[in-house]
Specification:
disordered N terminus, 3 domains, 17 helices, alpha+beta, two-stranded antiparallel ribbon, 510 residues
Length: 510
Protein backbone atom coordinates (compact mmCIF):
# COMPACT_ATOMS: atom_id res chain seq x y z
CA UNK A 1 0.00 0.00 0.00
CA UNK A 2 1.45 3.34 -1.01
CA UNK A 3 1.59 6.33 1.29
CA UNK A 4 -1.34 7.87 -0.60
CA UNK A 5 -3.58 4.87 0.02
CA UNK A 6 -5.26 4.66 3.40
CA UNK A 7 -7.62 2.23 5.11
CA UNK A 8 -11.18 3.47 5.40
CA UNK A 9 -12.11 6.09 7.96
CA UNK A 10 -13.98 5.00 11.06
CA UNK A 11 -16.05 7.72 12.72
CA UNK A 12 -16.67 5.80 15.94
CA UNK A 13 -12.93 5.14 16.21
CA UNK A 14 -12.14 8.84 15.90
CA UNK A 15 -14.67 9.62 18.59
CA UNK A 16 -13.25 6.87 20.78
CA UNK A 17 -9.61 7.91 20.46
CA UNK A 18 -10.48 11.52 21.17
CA UNK A 19 -11.35 10.34 24.68
CA UNK A 20 -8.06 8.45 25.12
CA UNK A 21 -5.36 10.36 26.97
CA UNK A 22 -2.33 10.98 24.80
CA UNK A 23 -1.39 11.87 21.24
CA UNK A 24 1.02 10.94 18.45
CA UNK A 25 4.34 12.72 17.91
CA UNK A 26 5.58 10.91 14.78
CA UNK A 27 9.07 12.34 15.35
CA UNK A 28 10.74 9.69 13.17
CA UNK A 29 9.22 11.45 10.16
CA UNK A 30 11.38 14.47 10.96
CA UNK A 31 14.42 12.48 9.84
CA UNK A 32 15.54 12.48 6.22
CA UNK A 33 13.44 10.45 3.79
CA UNK A 34 16.20 7.85 3.31
CA UNK A 35 15.38 6.53 6.81
CA UNK A 36 11.97 5.09 5.93
CA UNK A 37 9.15 4.53 3.46
CA UNK A 38 5.73 5.89 4.31
CA UNK A 39 2.81 3.51 3.79
CA UNK A 40 -0.27 2.12 5.49
CA UNK A 41 -1.18 -1.46 6.42
CA UNK A 42 -2.90 -3.92 4.09
CA UNK A 43 -6.21 -4.94 5.72
CA UNK A 44 -6.93 -8.46 6.94
CA UNK A 45 -10.22 -10.23 6.22
CA UNK A 46 -12.79 -10.73 8.97
CA UNK A 47 -10.52 -9.79 11.89
CA UNK A 48 -11.04 -10.99 15.49
CA UNK A 49 -9.33 -9.92 18.68
CA UNK A 50 -7.40 -12.80 20.24
CA UNK A 51 -6.04 -11.23 23.43
CA UNK A 52 -5.16 -7.94 25.05
CA UNK A 53 -2.75 -7.00 27.85
CA UNK A 54 -4.43 -4.91 30.57
CA UNK A 55 -0.99 -3.91 31.94
CA UNK A 56 0.10 -2.54 28.57
CA UNK A 57 -3.23 -0.74 28.17
CA UNK A 58 -2.47 1.04 31.43
CA UNK A 59 1.04 1.87 30.21
CA UNK A 60 -0.35 3.96 27.37
CA UNK A 61 -3.50 5.15 29.17
CA UNK A 62 -6.03 3.06 27.26
CA UNK A 63 -9.14 1.91 29.13
CA UNK A 64 -9.56 -1.88 28.91
CA UNK A 65 -13.17 -1.67 27.72
CA UNK A 66 -15.24 -3.30 24.96
CA UNK A 67 -15.08 -0.07 22.95
CA UNK A 68 -11.26 -0.09 23.16
CA UNK A 69 -11.16 -3.71 22.03
CA UNK A 70 -13.38 -2.93 19.05
CA UNK A 71 -11.21 0.02 18.07
CA UNK A 72 -7.97 -1.95 18.45
CA UNK A 73 -9.35 -4.78 16.34
CA UNK A 74 -9.96 -2.34 13.49
CA UNK A 75 -6.55 -0.68 13.90
CA UNK A 76 -4.52 -3.87 14.19
CA UNK A 77 -6.26 -5.56 11.27
CA UNK A 78 -5.48 -2.59 9.02
CA UNK A 79 -9.14 -1.68 8.58
CA UNK A 80 -8.42 1.85 9.74
CA UNK A 81 -5.59 4.01 11.02
CA UNK A 82 -5.25 5.23 14.59
CA UNK A 83 -6.13 8.93 14.24
CA UNK A 84 -2.94 10.95 14.32
CA UNK A 85 -0.66 8.06 13.35
CA UNK A 86 1.49 8.24 10.21
CA UNK A 87 2.70 4.69 9.47
CA UNK A 88 6.14 4.02 8.03
CA UNK A 89 8.53 1.15 7.40
CA UNK A 90 12.07 1.72 8.71
CA UNK A 91 15.17 0.78 6.75
CA UNK A 92 18.19 -0.89 8.39
CA UNK A 93 20.73 -3.64 7.78
CA UNK A 94 22.59 -6.07 10.02
CA UNK A 95 24.82 -9.07 10.55
CA UNK A 96 22.76 -12.25 10.30
CA UNK A 97 24.48 -15.37 11.66
CA UNK A 98 27.77 -13.49 11.34
CA UNK A 99 27.31 -12.35 7.72
CA UNK A 100 26.49 -8.78 6.75
CA UNK A 101 23.21 -8.23 4.90
CA UNK A 102 23.25 -4.70 3.41
CA UNK A 103 19.50 -4.07 3.23
CA UNK A 104 16.89 -5.43 5.59
CA UNK A 105 14.27 -3.11 7.08
CA UNK A 106 10.72 -3.56 8.36
CA UNK A 107 9.64 -6.34 6.05
CA UNK A 108 6.39 -7.13 7.82
CA UNK A 109 5.75 -4.33 10.25
CA UNK A 110 5.00 -0.62 10.42
CA UNK A 111 5.87 2.03 12.98
CA UNK A 112 2.56 3.84 13.52
CA UNK A 113 4.22 6.65 15.45
CA UNK A 114 5.23 7.61 18.99
CA UNK A 115 2.27 7.71 21.35
CA UNK A 116 2.74 10.19 24.20
CA UNK A 117 0.73 9.28 27.30
CA UNK A 118 -0.63 11.58 30.01
CA UNK A 119 2.69 11.35 31.89
CA UNK A 120 4.48 12.61 28.76
CA UNK A 121 6.19 9.25 28.24
CA UNK A 122 6.86 8.35 24.62
CA UNK A 123 5.94 4.86 23.44
CA UNK A 124 6.37 3.56 19.90
CA UNK A 125 3.33 1.72 18.56
CA UNK A 126 4.39 -0.87 16.00
CA UNK A 127 2.09 -3.13 13.99
CA UNK A 128 3.67 -6.50 13.19
CA UNK A 129 2.14 -8.41 10.27
CA UNK A 130 0.84 -5.32 8.48
CA UNK A 131 1.61 -6.52 4.94
CA UNK A 132 4.43 -6.17 2.40
CA UNK A 133 6.82 -3.22 2.38
CA UNK A 134 9.75 -2.32 0.11
CA UNK A 135 11.92 -4.29 2.56
CA UNK A 136 9.95 -7.55 2.48
CA UNK A 137 12.52 -9.28 0.22
CA UNK A 138 9.90 -11.33 -1.69
CA UNK A 139 8.03 -12.12 1.56
CA UNK A 140 4.32 -11.57 2.07
CA UNK A 141 4.76 -9.15 4.96
CA UNK A 142 2.44 -11.15 7.14
CA UNK A 143 2.67 -12.74 10.56
CA UNK A 144 0.81 -15.86 11.66
CA UNK A 145 -1.10 -16.58 14.84
CA UNK A 146 1.53 -18.79 16.49
CA UNK A 147 4.32 -16.23 16.13
CA UNK A 148 2.11 -13.40 17.40
CA UNK A 149 0.99 -15.41 20.44
CA UNK A 150 4.59 -16.38 21.22
CA UNK A 151 5.73 -12.75 21.15
CA UNK A 152 2.71 -11.56 23.13
CA UNK A 153 3.28 -14.09 25.92
CA UNK A 154 7.06 -13.67 25.98
CA UNK A 155 6.98 -9.87 26.04
CA UNK A 156 4.67 -9.73 29.02
CA UNK A 157 6.39 -12.65 30.78
CA UNK A 158 9.83 -11.03 30.50
CA UNK A 159 8.56 -7.67 31.73
CA UNK A 160 7.07 -9.21 34.85
CA UNK A 161 10.32 -11.08 35.46
CA UNK A 162 11.99 -7.66 35.62
CA UNK A 163 13.90 -8.06 32.34
CA UNK A 164 13.97 -5.09 29.92
CA UNK A 165 11.76 -5.89 26.94
CA UNK A 166 9.41 -4.58 24.33
CA UNK A 167 5.76 -4.96 25.36
CA UNK A 168 2.71 -6.35 23.59
CA UNK A 169 -0.67 -4.65 23.59
CA UNK A 170 -2.86 -7.11 21.68
CA UNK A 171 -3.11 -9.81 19.01
CA UNK A 172 -5.68 -10.11 16.22
CA UNK A 173 -6.28 -12.94 13.78
CA UNK A 174 -8.29 -13.20 10.58
CA UNK A 175 -9.50 -15.27 7.63
CA UNK A 176 -6.60 -14.06 5.46
CA UNK A 177 -4.60 -17.17 4.45
CA UNK A 178 -0.82 -17.09 4.87
CA UNK A 179 1.41 -19.81 3.48
CA UNK A 180 4.21 -21.06 5.72
CA UNK A 181 4.99 -24.78 6.13
CA UNK A 182 1.19 -25.09 6.01
CA UNK A 183 -1.63 -22.64 5.36
CA UNK A 184 -2.10 -20.46 8.47
CA UNK A 185 -4.22 -17.52 9.58
CA UNK A 186 -2.83 -14.04 8.95
CA UNK A 187 -2.50 -12.26 12.29
CA UNK A 188 -1.03 -9.11 13.77
CA UNK A 189 0.56 -8.01 17.03
CA UNK A 190 0.66 -4.44 18.29
CA UNK A 191 4.07 -3.96 19.92
CA UNK A 192 4.83 -1.14 22.37
CA UNK A 193 8.41 0.02 23.00
CA UNK A 194 10.35 3.13 23.88
CA UNK A 195 12.36 2.74 20.70
CA UNK A 196 12.50 0.49 17.64
CA UNK A 197 15.99 1.58 16.63
CA UNK A 198 18.36 -1.35 16.26
CA UNK A 199 22.11 -1.79 16.01
CA UNK A 200 21.39 -2.51 12.35
CA UNK A 201 20.10 1.03 11.76
CA UNK A 202 23.58 2.38 12.47
CA UNK A 203 25.24 -0.32 10.38
CA UNK A 204 23.04 0.56 7.40
CA UNK A 205 24.08 4.21 7.37
CA UNK A 206 27.72 3.37 8.09
CA UNK A 207 28.12 0.89 5.25
CA UNK A 208 25.92 2.73 2.74
CA UNK A 209 27.94 5.90 3.31
CA UNK A 210 31.06 4.15 2.03
CA UNK A 211 29.46 4.06 -1.40
CA UNK A 212 28.99 7.84 -1.41
CA UNK A 213 31.62 10.29 -2.63
CA UNK A 214 30.33 13.41 -0.90
CA UNK A 215 32.53 14.89 1.80
CA UNK A 216 29.73 14.71 4.35
CA UNK A 217 28.64 11.20 3.46
CA UNK A 218 28.19 10.22 7.12
CA UNK A 219 25.57 12.92 7.71
CA UNK A 220 22.76 10.34 7.97
CA UNK A 221 24.71 8.37 10.54
CA UNK A 222 25.21 11.50 12.61
CA UNK A 223 21.56 12.46 12.17
CA UNK A 224 20.48 9.05 13.47
CA UNK A 225 22.84 9.17 16.44
CA UNK A 226 21.70 12.68 17.41
CA UNK A 227 18.05 11.70 17.09
CA UNK A 228 18.52 8.55 19.19
CA UNK A 229 20.35 10.41 21.95
CA UNK A 230 17.77 13.20 22.18
CA UNK A 231 14.88 10.74 22.11
CA UNK A 232 16.10 7.98 24.44
CA UNK A 233 19.28 9.11 26.21
CA UNK A 234 18.35 12.58 27.38
CA UNK A 235 20.22 12.15 30.67
CA UNK A 236 23.46 11.98 28.68
CA UNK A 237 23.06 15.32 26.90
CA UNK A 238 25.19 17.44 29.23
CA UNK A 239 28.13 17.08 26.82
CA UNK A 240 28.34 19.44 23.86
CA UNK A 241 26.49 17.95 20.88
CA UNK A 242 28.70 16.63 18.11
CA UNK A 243 31.74 16.08 20.33
CA UNK A 244 33.51 12.82 21.14
CA UNK A 245 32.20 13.08 24.70
CA UNK A 246 28.62 13.39 23.43
CA UNK A 247 28.78 10.19 21.39
CA UNK A 248 30.99 8.36 23.86
CA UNK A 249 28.45 8.78 26.64
CA UNK A 250 25.81 7.31 24.34
CA UNK A 251 27.91 4.29 23.31
CA UNK A 252 29.04 3.63 26.87
CA UNK A 253 25.44 3.48 28.04
CA UNK A 254 24.48 1.13 25.19
CA UNK A 255 27.32 -1.18 26.27
CA UNK A 256 26.13 -1.11 29.87
CA UNK A 257 22.51 -1.82 28.99
CA UNK A 258 23.37 -4.62 26.57
CA UNK A 259 25.77 -6.41 28.94
CA UNK A 260 23.27 -6.07 31.80
CA UNK A 261 20.40 -7.38 29.66
CA UNK A 262 22.27 -10.51 28.62
CA UNK A 263 23.35 -11.17 32.20
CA UNK A 264 19.67 -11.12 33.12
CA UNK A 265 18.89 -13.57 30.31
CA UNK A 266 21.55 -15.95 31.56
CA UNK A 267 20.43 -15.75 35.17
CA UNK A 268 16.81 -16.64 34.35
CA UNK A 269 17.73 -19.30 31.77
CA UNK A 270 16.43 -17.48 28.70
CA UNK A 271 17.80 -18.08 25.19
CA UNK A 272 16.94 -15.54 22.50
CA UNK A 273 17.78 -17.80 19.59
CA UNK A 274 18.68 -15.30 16.88
CA UNK A 275 20.94 -12.51 18.14
CA UNK A 276 21.58 -10.89 14.78
CA UNK A 277 22.57 -7.24 15.02
CA UNK A 278 19.25 -6.24 13.44
CA UNK A 279 17.55 -7.90 16.44
CA UNK A 280 19.53 -5.88 19.01
CA UNK A 281 17.70 -2.92 20.56
CA UNK A 282 19.77 0.24 20.92
CA UNK A 283 18.11 0.92 24.30
CA UNK A 284 18.82 -2.55 25.71
CA UNK A 285 15.40 -4.17 25.44
CA UNK A 286 14.80 -7.81 24.61
CA UNK A 287 13.72 -7.42 21.01
CA UNK A 288 12.18 -9.46 18.15
CA UNK A 289 10.92 -12.64 19.78
CA UNK A 290 11.24 -15.56 17.39
CA UNK A 291 12.77 -18.96 18.22
CA UNK A 292 13.35 -18.06 21.87
CA UNK A 293 13.12 -20.50 24.76
CA UNK A 294 13.27 -20.66 28.53
CA UNK A 295 15.38 -23.66 29.43
CA UNK A 296 13.76 -26.67 31.03
CA UNK A 297 16.62 -29.05 31.81
CA UNK A 298 19.80 -27.04 32.26
CA UNK A 299 22.19 -27.38 29.34
CA UNK A 300 25.11 -24.99 28.91
CA UNK A 301 24.97 -25.50 25.15
CA UNK A 302 21.20 -25.41 24.69
CA UNK A 303 20.18 -24.36 21.17
CA UNK A 304 16.60 -23.13 21.07
CA UNK A 305 16.59 -22.26 17.35
CA UNK A 306 16.16 -25.29 15.10
CA UNK A 307 17.58 -23.20 12.23
CA UNK A 308 20.86 -22.54 14.10
CA UNK A 309 22.75 -25.49 12.65
CA UNK A 310 26.13 -24.55 14.13
CA UNK A 311 25.00 -23.31 17.54
CA UNK A 312 26.12 -19.73 16.99
CA UNK A 313 23.34 -18.52 19.27
CA UNK A 314 23.44 -21.32 21.82
CA UNK A 315 22.75 -20.35 25.44
CA UNK A 316 26.44 -20.51 26.39
CA UNK A 317 27.36 -18.21 23.48
CA UNK A 318 24.98 -15.34 24.27
CA UNK A 319 27.40 -13.26 26.40
CA UNK A 320 30.12 -13.48 23.75
CA UNK A 321 27.69 -12.74 20.92
CA UNK A 322 26.48 -9.68 22.81
CA UNK A 323 30.08 -8.47 22.93
CA UNK A 324 30.58 -9.27 19.23
CA UNK A 325 27.43 -7.33 18.31
CA UNK A 326 28.57 -4.34 20.37
CA UNK A 327 31.83 -4.50 18.42
CA UNK A 328 29.88 -4.18 15.17
CA UNK A 329 28.03 -1.19 16.59
CA UNK A 330 31.36 0.33 17.63
CA UNK A 331 32.59 -0.05 14.07
CA UNK A 332 29.47 1.66 12.72
CA UNK A 333 29.91 4.62 15.09
CA UNK A 334 33.61 5.26 14.39
CA UNK A 335 32.99 8.09 11.86
CA UNK A 336 31.47 10.14 14.69
CA UNK A 337 34.75 10.22 16.64
CA UNK A 338 37.91 12.20 16.09
CA UNK A 339 39.77 9.71 18.30
CA UNK A 340 38.48 6.18 17.68
CA UNK A 341 40.56 4.73 20.51
CA UNK A 342 37.99 5.92 23.05
CA UNK A 343 35.23 3.82 21.52
CA UNK A 344 37.39 0.68 21.68
CA UNK A 345 38.18 1.42 25.31
CA UNK A 346 34.46 1.76 26.06
CA UNK A 347 33.77 -1.55 24.31
CA UNK A 348 36.29 -3.30 26.57
CA UNK A 349 34.09 -2.47 29.58
CA UNK A 350 31.50 -4.98 28.36
CA UNK A 351 33.07 -8.17 29.85
CA UNK A 352 33.50 -6.60 33.28
CA UNK A 353 29.95 -5.21 33.35
CA UNK A 354 28.52 -8.54 32.23
CA UNK A 355 30.55 -10.62 34.71
CA UNK A 356 29.83 -8.40 37.70
CA UNK A 357 26.11 -8.18 36.90
CA UNK A 358 25.75 -11.90 36.33
CA UNK A 359 27.59 -12.77 39.57
CA UNK A 360 25.38 -10.42 41.58
CA UNK A 361 22.23 -11.89 40.03
CA UNK A 362 23.35 -15.44 40.79
CA UNK A 363 24.22 -14.57 44.38
CA UNK A 364 20.74 -13.08 44.72
CA UNK A 365 19.28 -16.33 43.37
CA UNK A 366 20.99 -18.32 46.12
CA UNK A 367 20.21 -15.73 48.78
CA UNK A 368 23.71 -14.50 49.64
CA UNK A 369 24.27 -10.86 50.51
CA UNK A 370 28.07 -10.75 50.68
CA UNK A 371 30.42 -11.66 47.86
CA UNK A 372 33.50 -13.85 48.42
CA UNK A 373 36.60 -14.05 46.21
CA UNK A 374 35.88 -17.48 44.69
CA UNK A 375 32.14 -17.09 44.20
CA UNK A 376 32.30 -17.19 40.40
CA UNK A 377 34.01 -20.58 40.45
CA UNK A 378 31.64 -21.84 43.14
CA UNK A 379 28.56 -20.87 41.12
CA UNK A 380 30.06 -22.43 38.00
CA UNK A 381 30.51 -25.63 40.01
CA UNK A 382 26.81 -25.62 40.86
CA UNK A 383 25.79 -25.00 37.26
CA UNK A 384 28.03 -27.84 36.11
CA UNK A 385 26.22 -30.14 38.55
CA UNK A 386 22.88 -29.01 37.09
CA UNK A 387 24.21 -29.56 33.58
CA UNK A 388 25.53 -33.04 34.34
CA UNK A 389 22.29 -34.12 36.03
CA UNK A 390 19.99 -32.50 33.41
CA UNK A 391 18.22 -30.75 36.27
CA UNK A 392 15.25 -28.45 35.63
CA UNK A 393 16.80 -24.99 36.05
CA UNK A 394 13.76 -23.08 37.27
CA UNK A 395 12.46 -25.79 39.61
CA UNK A 396 15.88 -26.25 41.21
CA UNK A 397 16.28 -22.61 42.22
CA UNK A 398 12.67 -22.34 43.38
CA UNK A 399 13.20 -25.42 45.55
CA UNK A 400 16.45 -23.96 46.90
CA UNK A 401 14.38 -21.08 48.31
CA UNK A 402 13.02 -23.47 50.98
CA UNK A 403 16.41 -24.85 52.03
CA UNK A 404 17.27 -26.16 54.65
CA UNK A 405 13.88 -27.84 55.22
CA UNK A 406 13.93 -31.63 55.01
CA UNK A 407 11.57 -31.65 52.04
CA UNK A 408 13.72 -29.14 50.15
CA UNK A 409 16.91 -31.12 50.84
CA UNK A 410 15.31 -34.31 49.56
CA UNK A 411 13.92 -32.60 46.47
CA UNK A 412 17.25 -30.95 45.65
CA UNK A 413 19.13 -34.26 45.80
CA UNK A 414 16.44 -35.88 43.68
CA UNK A 415 16.64 -33.12 41.08
CA UNK A 416 20.40 -32.64 40.83
CA UNK A 417 22.04 -35.82 42.08
CA UNK A 418 25.02 -35.63 44.41
CA UNK A 419 24.85 -32.15 45.88
CA UNK A 420 26.27 -33.06 49.28
CA UNK A 421 29.59 -31.24 48.98
CA UNK A 422 28.06 -28.14 47.40
CA UNK A 423 25.23 -27.96 49.96
CA UNK A 424 27.70 -28.34 52.83
CA UNK A 425 29.57 -25.33 51.49
CA UNK A 426 26.28 -23.51 51.01
CA UNK A 427 25.25 -24.19 54.60
CA UNK A 428 28.52 -22.67 55.80
CA UNK A 429 27.92 -19.57 53.67
CA UNK A 430 24.43 -19.21 55.10
CA UNK A 431 25.85 -19.16 58.63
CA UNK A 432 27.88 -16.09 57.60
CA UNK A 433 24.90 -14.44 55.86
CA UNK A 434 23.84 -11.16 57.56
CA UNK A 435 20.12 -12.04 57.27
CA UNK A 436 18.11 -14.85 58.88
CA UNK A 437 16.66 -17.79 56.98
CA UNK A 438 13.04 -16.53 56.75
CA UNK A 439 14.21 -13.21 55.32
CA UNK A 440 16.62 -14.93 52.95
CA UNK A 441 13.92 -17.35 51.75
CA UNK A 442 11.49 -14.51 51.13
CA UNK A 443 14.10 -12.56 49.15
CA UNK A 444 14.95 -15.62 47.08
CA UNK A 445 11.32 -16.15 46.14
CA UNK A 446 11.27 -12.63 44.71
CA UNK A 447 14.06 -13.40 42.24
CA UNK A 448 13.50 -17.11 41.49
CA UNK A 449 10.25 -17.43 39.54
CA UNK A 450 7.86 -20.30 40.10
CA UNK A 451 6.41 -19.84 36.62
CA UNK A 452 8.16 -19.29 33.31
CA UNK A 453 6.89 -19.47 29.73
CA UNK A 454 7.89 -23.02 28.90
CA UNK A 455 7.72 -23.87 25.21
CA UNK A 456 5.15 -26.61 25.71
CA UNK A 457 2.84 -24.21 27.57
CA UNK A 458 3.07 -21.70 24.73
CA UNK A 459 2.40 -24.50 22.23
CA UNK A 460 -0.71 -25.65 24.10
CA UNK A 461 -2.06 -22.10 24.06
CA UNK A 462 -1.30 -21.80 20.34
CA UNK A 463 -2.97 -25.12 19.48
CA UNK A 464 -6.16 -24.12 21.30
CA UNK A 465 -6.11 -20.61 19.80
CA UNK A 466 -5.84 -22.03 16.28
CA UNK A 467 -9.08 -23.88 17.09
CA UNK A 468 -10.73 -20.63 18.21
CA UNK A 469 -10.30 -21.08 21.99
CA UNK A 470 -8.26 -18.25 23.54
CA UNK A 471 -8.83 -19.17 27.21
CA UNK A 472 -5.43 -20.81 27.66
CA UNK A 473 -3.71 -17.53 26.78
CA UNK A 474 -5.60 -15.86 29.61
CA UNK A 475 -4.69 -18.70 31.99
CA UNK A 476 -1.02 -18.36 31.16
CA UNK A 477 -1.16 -14.60 31.57
CA UNK A 478 -2.47 -15.11 35.11
CA UNK A 479 0.76 -16.80 36.19
CA UNK A 480 3.19 -15.05 33.85
CA UNK A 481 2.22 -11.56 35.02
CA UNK A 482 2.91 -12.59 38.64
CA UNK A 483 5.60 -15.28 38.20
CA UNK A 484 6.93 -15.17 41.78
CA UNK A 485 3.49 -15.79 43.36
CA UNK A 486 2.24 -19.25 44.39
CA UNK A 487 -1.11 -19.14 42.49
CA UNK A 488 -3.12 -21.94 44.16
CA UNK A 489 -5.01 -23.88 41.53
CA UNK A 490 -2.45 -23.08 38.83
CA UNK A 491 0.45 -25.16 40.22
CA UNK A 492 0.50 -27.43 37.16
CA UNK A 493 1.90 -24.56 35.10
CA UNK A 494 5.08 -24.81 37.20
CA UNK A 495 5.62 -28.53 36.54
CA UNK A 496 8.35 -30.01 34.39
CA UNK A 497 7.19 -30.50 30.81
CA UNK A 498 5.96 -33.90 29.64
CA UNK A 499 8.37 -35.83 27.44
CA UNK A 500 6.80 -34.51 24.23
CA UNK A 501 7.16 -30.96 25.56
CA UNK A 502 10.94 -31.30 25.77
CA UNK A 503 11.24 -32.20 22.08
CA UNK A 504 9.55 -29.20 20.50
CA UNK A 505 11.48 -27.58 17.65
CA UNK A 506 11.25 -23.83 17.16
CA UNK A 507 12.74 -22.08 14.12
CA UNK A 508 13.13 -18.54 12.82
CA UNK A 509 9.68 -18.81 11.17
CA UNK A 510 8.20 -19.04 14.67
Amino acid sequence: MSENTHPRDCKHLSMMTNTWAGHFNNTYLQLSQNFYTRQGPVPLKNPRLVTISPATCTLIDLPNTPATKTALTEICSGQTLWPGSQPLAMVYSGHQFGNYNPRLGDGRGLLLGEWVNARQEKWDLYLKGAGPTPYSRFGDGRAVLRSCIREFLASEAMHHLGIPTTRALCVTTSDTPVQRETLEAGSTLLRVAQSHIRFGHFEYFYFSAHNEKAKNRFNSLRELADYTIWQNFTDLTSAEPGTDAFYLGFFTEVIRRTATLIARWQAVGFAHGVMNTDNMSIIGDTFDYGPYGFMDNFDWHHICNHSDNYGRYAFSQQPEIGYWNCGKLAQALTPLFSDTRVIQQALENYPTIYTQTYLRLMLDKIGLIEQHPNDSEWIQELLQLLHDSHCDYTLFFRTLCDYPSDSACAALHQQAGNLTAWLNNYQERLRQNPIDDPTRQQRMKQVNPKFILRNYLAQQAITQAEQGNFQEIDNLMTVLTAPFTEHPGFEHYANEPPSWGKKLEVSCSS
